[in-house]
Write a structure and sequence with these properties.
This protein is mainly alpha-helical. The chain has a domain of 281 residues: Up-down Bundle (Na+/H+ antiporter like fold). 76% of the residues lie in helices and 0% in strands. Helix 1 crosses helix 2, helix 5 crosses helix 12 and helix 8 runs antiparallel to helix 17.
Length: 440
């Protein structure tokens, strides 16, 4: 018997949901950009406005009609968002500048390791200390604490790159070093996310932990040994056409298949998307001009819808609870201190000055899009409660808003001539413009 089609009313509501979220996300994203804030702030706010934080209180009848508490209805909206985030992560992987890491490998490694380990450790520690009411029923406190640590240790390359570009700091050594350390943070962050997601799915045991560690390594090895030549051949074949259509189709197909492969292994789809994006970016066959249509669709339509759906799941009224508010303040303080202190320590170990360390800490403190994705994964897995999810999204917003003013303050106190005398190359290559994904 044929599968029934989408009911007429459900389709109507779905189309109106997409239209309203896209209109609000684009409008508020542009408004945020005019005030020198990351567009993601406005896009998340779009979801907040139509979610339980605002619309459900201001106009309950409209909220129940437009955003009904119907699982099937919300799953349609989620499906669009999931396709968007998978392609967005793939694009992020394509745009990572591995040559930056090679050029600044020792200093970048020190800054990245310190900027990862300290907030990870502090995040795990505060995760164990948070009230049990913040932890979802049935979730292991250990898994929750590790997941919170991962959420606090990530860095958002898109936000960093966009901030540096807007402030005309991309050519400076500190700007390049911040990006290089951020690349390493991104790579390790996706590994950690895949590991803790597998733990959350399969439970905590010696075998599960071992499998969670080995699977991501196996995926990367398989991608490098088997996938890399296949990706290169597929892109070379698609590139023979003068039309961008084959290149766009093959690129999207590679990212989606990679996401499906890791999803099948219980490692999270975004990890596979990231690995395949990195394969495409390092294949030598990346034609940015032909991929422009894909970036445009993802950044102008799919990504804003995803961030708006992420905002819908925020419930700011939870912050009226003193326990949740105290937890939010504690997590935010730990997140900011961990990144700043870690990056500053890495800078000092590399012989850099205090202002350079402060600038690196400001850049690495931006979490933006990556932390939103981590939070959504945690919510979907049931590792995060609605309250914990709201707290983590707030951290992503606040830390992204902090970066520009602190960077501006620190960079104004760094002598560019002295900076160039530290033994670092002073001119950025022409292709080191901020990646298109920096818009989010």
């Amino acid at each position: 018997m044929p599968v029934p089609t989408i009911p007429h009313h459900s389709l109507l509501v779905f189309l109106l949901q997409l239209a309203v979220l896209l209109l609000l996300a684009l409008s508020l994203g542009q408004l945020a950009a005019r005030f020198k804030m990351p567009a993601i702030v406005g896009e998340l706010l779009a979801g907040v406005l139509v979610g339980p934080s605002v619309l459900s209180h201001a106009w309950p009848a409209l909220a129940d009609w437009l955003m009904p508490k119907d699982t099937a209805q919300m799953h349609m909206l989620d499906a669009v968002g999931q396709v968007g985030v998978v392609l967005l992560v793939g694009i992020t992987g394509m745009e990572l500048k591995f040559d930056l890491v090679r050029r600044r490998r020792l200093t970048a490694a020190r800054v990245s390791v310190c900027g990862l380990v300290l907030p990870l450790a502090l995040g795990v520690g505060v995760g164990f200390l948070l009230p049990s009411s913040i932890v979802p029923d049935g979730t292991s406190p250990t898994v929750f604490a590790i997941f919170l640590g991962v959420a606090l240790c990530v860095t958002a390359i898109p936000v960093i790159a966009k901030t540096l570009m807007d402030m005309n700091l991309l050519h400076r050594d500190i700007g390049q070093l911040t990006l290089a350390a951020g690349v390493l943070d991104d790579i390790v962050g996706w590994f950690l996310l895949s590991i803790v997601s597998a733990m959350a799915t399969a439970g905590l045991s010696t075998g599960t932990v071992a499998t969670s560690l080995l699977y991501p390594v196996g995926v990367v090895l398989a991608a490098w040994l088997v996938g890399r030549p296949l990706v290169k051949a597929a892109l070379r074949t698609a590139g023979r056409s003068a039309s961008p259509v084959p290149t766009v189709a093959v690129t999207a197909l590679i990212v989606l298949l990679g996401a499906a492969a890791t999803q099948a292994l219980h490692l999270e789809a975004v990890f596979g998307a990231f690995v395949c994006g990195a394969l495409i970016g390092t294949s030598g066959q990346l034609d940015r001009e032909k991929l422009a249509p894909l970036r445009t669709v993802v950044l102008a339509f799919l990504a804003p819808v995803f961030f708006a759906t992420a905002g819908i799941r925020m419930d700011l009224t939870a912050l009226t609870d003193p326990t949740v508010l105290a937890a939010a303040c504690a997590v935010l303080a730990v997140a900011i201190f961990g990144k700043f202190a870690g990056a500053f320590a890495g800078a000092k170990m590399s012989g850099l000055g205090r202002w350079e360390g402060l600038a690196l800490g400001a850049g690495m403190n931006s979490r933006g899009v990556i932390e939103v994705i981590v939070a959504m994964v945690g919510l979907q897995l049931g590792v995060l409660s609605a309250e914990a999810y709201t707290v983590i999204i707030l951290v992503a917003i606040v830390t992204s808003l902090m970066a520009p003013p602190v960077l501006r303050f620190a960079m104004a106190r760094i002598d560019e001539d002295a900076e160039a005398g530290m033994g670092m190359v002073g001119t950025a290559p022409r292709d080191l413009a901020a990646p298109p994904s920096a818009a989010v």
